[in-house]
Amino acid sequence: MMYEATSGTVMNGCTCTNPSGHCNDFNATRQYQIKNVIERKLEEQNYCYSLVHKSMKPFGPEVFKRSGTCEGQYCFISYTTSEIVLESVGFEHDYADHDEFVGKARPRFEILAGCLKVDDDKKITEGCTAEYSTNSTEPLAKHCVCKSHLCNFHHLITEVNRQEN
Predict the structure, then answer these.
(1) Could you tell me which residues are beta bridge partners of residue 87?
(2) Residue 158 confidence (pLDDT) above 70
(3) Strands 9-12, 46-55: parallel, antiparallel or unpaired by DSSP?
């Protein structure tokens, strides 16, 4: 699998074609990726928005003015609204004295949009998902995968909210 959010944010996943022996052989993995992922279905590639944006405050579709484009079999968009941090229940002077912690959500807004290339379409499910904290109705994150030109726009993550209400 490979995903690209910007030209500087390209991730290649390890694809093990033989579960024993030299599964992590980089050259064999790279050759497999070139043939079965990167060069797969070149005629069916879609243009997608490519963007990485982080902020401590909410933002809207205006951030797409700074986006680029990439090509892939699928487009994705991922939007995070908060991060979970661990804090000590009480104040202690020594680090070793901290033995009880609580998880809290802290506002942190991040959007990642780009292209997905896969070696098998069965590994991808089109549509959107949302992640929630057990004590909140606001989503922590939303993730969408779509398959058409420039389909990974901001509207995907805002429509998820409307469909759930």
Answers:
(1) 102
(2) yes
(3) unpaired
